[in-house]
Design a protein that fits this description.
58% helix, 5 strands, 22 helices, 5-stranded mixed sheet, 5% strand, mainly alpha
Length: 494
């Protein structure tokens, strides 16, 4: 099985590398503003006044920005000053780190899977979890904490040596320092070690000691980042839980919200299977460490008023084991029923699910869906434009670390001189006065360069109407920003 696992991980690594190259964006703004911009502030690129309110409130950890800073400084010393190039390196290294964590986790969890057939299925299906490459290259706290928590579980499984459990505690602490909510998974692992694995007191003490070392490292990183001694986790809980700022600002959802928030992507089929497998794992595998780690973590997020799909992304590596830990026919509970379910893996449902997963994995690897961040246009402006850029009735997101040409709002294109640059949020220009031609310079819509900009604008209209009808999905507005050069005829110029 070692050779098969190696092949699966190699295939996944290749897709991760491609995704890191093309995925020049973020899934959620926190990935950029509360990690990369924090790092850029220490590099002297982003002023403190441009950082989000969380910086002033001192509620975010500096652990992950500090790690990225340690990578960026040598790159800049070597002459790499383009911030988009630096963030590509960070995405690539984050993706490779995530794959390495998955490899270590897979090797550790394999002996705990019931049945050789289930083990072979686990190995073969690793590269088919289509959401992995996209999430692995995200410079987000969810991705870093997912890797650390998977490594922690691997260090603790089937080991009683205090050195290994000290490492597990350290890794749980680092996951906590990247995303505070993962404390529930660390506590779950500790409880499993004490109750199920019956680890001895010195080994449990070593686990706690490793966690305390991580907290010390986090305190040093926060002291470096904020300039004063603080303990951000307490302020984070006070602001977002006690005061309820997150729920007031971003809304409250019902307890069952994750049942529709998580599948609301192109990966809906495989996501539904993973969610069902997780519930089956809790019922059929109650003594497994993955159950002890995931159940309290999910329960907490179900109980919290404000819910987002990304809040459960720290489970992404552990989730690769859910199908075999929940559906394996060799587990002792309800074997007959789950033997029938297990047989479906060779049916048309599994084939359609796999094909859909692979399609969207390839899609996101080559062209990340541009609903949120508009990094492609930011990169083009950052690298190619120095003069003013004019906008009509649209706003373009501001990323302080990617400083680009000044954006100037105007009311109508008639006021623009010959040669002016116009930025729109659709791949078609606004109505232009007679004698004025709009020449396409760059568009986030890939088919605009081939003359199909109208198709992009029509798609935006259909998407906007659907989002208005399905408000419960919380779909964000869709824009494909496009840059034109306006040219007036010789008669008009004269």
């Amino acid at each position: 099985m070692t050779a098969a696992l190696r092949r699966s991980l190699l295939l996944l690594t290749l897709v991760v590398i491609v995704t890191a190259w093309f995925s020049d964006l973020f899934y959620f703004p926190d990935e950029h503003f509360q990690v990369l911009e924090f790092m850029a502030h220490k590099l002297g690129v982003t002023p403190a006044s441009a950082l989000p309110w969380e910086f002033t409130a001192r509620i975010r950890s500096w652990m992950q920005p500090a790690i990225y800073y340690a990578i960026a400084v040598p790159l800049r010393a070597l002459g790499v000053t383009d911030m988009f190039t630096i963030t590509f390196v960070l995405r690539l290294l984050t993706g490779l780190f995530s794959v390495a964590a998955l490899a270590v986790f897979a090797r550790a969890v394999l002996p705990t899977i019931h049945g050789n057939e289930a083990r072979r299925f686990f190995i073969r299906y690793l590269p088919l979890f289509g959401f992995l490459p996209y999430l692995f290259v995200r410079t987000s706290s969810e991705t870093f904490s997912a890797a650390f928590i998977a490594l922690a579980l691997a260090a603790a499984l089937n080991r009683q040596d205090p050195k290994w459990l000290a490492l597990a505690g350290l890794l749980c602490g680092l996951a906590f320092e990247c995303r505070y909510q993962t404390a529930l998974m660390g506590l779950g692992l500790f409880a499993w070690l004490a109750v199920i694995a019956r680890a001895r007191v010195p080994a449990l003490a070593a686990f706690i000691g490793g966690g305390l070392v991580a907290l010390l490292l986090g305190a040093l990183a926060d002291r470096w980042g904020y300039g004063v001694w603080v303990f951000p986790p307490l302020d984070y809980v006070n602001v977002n839980i006690v005061q309820g700022v997150a729920a007031r600002s971003f809304g409250r959802e019902p307890v069952f919200a994750y049942l529709y928030l998580l599948p609301a992507t192109g990966f809906f089929a495989i996501t539904l299977i993973v969610m069902a497998a997780m519930a089956a794992m809790w019922l059929r595998n109650p003594r497994h460490a993955v159950t002890w780690m995931t159940l309290p973590f999910v329960a907490l997020h179900v109980a919290v008023a404000h819910k987002e799909a990304r809040f459960l992304f720290p489970l992404v590596i552990l989730a690769t084991s859910f199908p075999v830990l929940g559906f394996s026919p060799d587990l002792p509970r309800w074997r007959g029923a789950f033997a029938r379910i297990w047989s479906w893996r060779a049916g048309w449902t599994a084939k359609v699910t796999t094909a859909t997963s692979l399609f969207f994995m390839a899609y996101l690897a080559l062209y990340p869906f541009g609903v949120r961040p508009h990094m492609p246009m930011s990169r083009y402006l950052y690298r190619n434009i120095t003069g003013p850029v004019y906008t009509i009735g649209t706003s373009f997101p501001d990323y302080p670390m990617y400083r680009h040409a000044r954006l100037v709002p105007v009311t109508a294109p008639e006021a623009l001189a010959d040669g002016s640059l116009l930025l729109t949020d659709t791949p078609t220009p606004p109505p232009l006065p007679p004698g004025v031609k709009a020449t396409l310079l760059y568009s986030e819509f890939p088919f605009a360069r081939f003359g199909y900009g109208r198709a992009g604008s029509d798609f935006i209209g259909a998407y906007t109407r659907f989002a208005a009808r399905a408000r419960f999905l919380k779909l964000l507005p869709l824009h494909w920003y496009t840059l034109y050069r306006l040219e007036r005829s010789a008669r008009m110029r004269s």
